[in-house]
């Protein structure tokens, strides 16, 4: 094969090994020809009984229950996908930015197509099942179990969906109290794009009006510990 196709650049796998070792682009071409993906693939769709979904994620089961409570129905089953060979909750916090970059770079062409799924239920006195749209399992795990680098050094970590990219006013007023993503942890060439993607696709919050009542209460409750009376007097 080397003699037949070895000089044809359209067939990189047939190149002599000595040449391939010296040419990174040739090696990449070989991987592409073999079908090796440059980003983690989504697994085949799997139908799971609702009562067994906690084997995948207890938090995901609670999320489904909460969504179905809005329509006063009980889920029967759900179709799910996962990220192949990626255990979200085992990724180290200083490595998560690279997974986010992969998701961002391939979002429009691949991942966005799998971020939603549907769960089935049967309304009272109905013969046929009906469906509602929900976050897919893998996307729920990314948003709720992935711990990302934070600007606030005192914060031990927060799920991606609870993080902020605040506007100037919000950061000035509550910057010390919010889990703000550290964009400096991302390579320079990706910072602007990742910020836009986190705002538009992950829907990270930006303004004071988006702070919920219980979050205001938590901030107020944390004041005595963060700012003891003696320190306040000194300030």
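-> sequence recovered:
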């Amino acid at each position: 094969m080397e003699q037949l196709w070895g000089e044809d650049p359209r067939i990189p796998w047939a190149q002599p090994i000595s040449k391939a070792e010296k040419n990174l682009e040739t090696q990449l071409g070989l991987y592409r020809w073999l079908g090796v993906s440059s980003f983690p693939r989504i697994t085949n769709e799997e139908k799971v009984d609702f009562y067994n979904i906690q084997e995948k994620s207890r938090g995901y089961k609670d999320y489904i229950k909460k969504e179905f409570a809005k329509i006063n129905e009980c889920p029967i089953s759900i179709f799910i996908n996962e990220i192949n060979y990626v255990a979200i909750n085992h990724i180290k916090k200083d490595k998560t930015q690279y997974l986010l970059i992969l998701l961002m770079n391939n979002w429009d062409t691949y991942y966005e197509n799998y971020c939603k799924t549907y769960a089935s239920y049967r309304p009272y006195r109905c013969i046929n099942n009906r469906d509602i749209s929900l976050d897919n399992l893998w996307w729920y795990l990314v948003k709720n179990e992935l711990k990302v680098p934070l600007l606030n050094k005192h914060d031990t970590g927060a799920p991606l969906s609870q993080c902020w990219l605040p506007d100037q006013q919000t950061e000035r007023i509550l910057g010390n109290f919010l889990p703000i993503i550290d964009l400096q942890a991302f390579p320079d060439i990706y910072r602007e794009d990742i910020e836009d993607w986190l705002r538009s696709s992950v829907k990270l919050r930006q303004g004071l009006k988006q702070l919920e009542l219980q979050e205001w209460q938590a901030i107020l409750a944390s004041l005595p510990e963060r700012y003891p009376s003696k320190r306040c007097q000194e300030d």
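The chain has three domains: 2-34, 46-145, 147-212.
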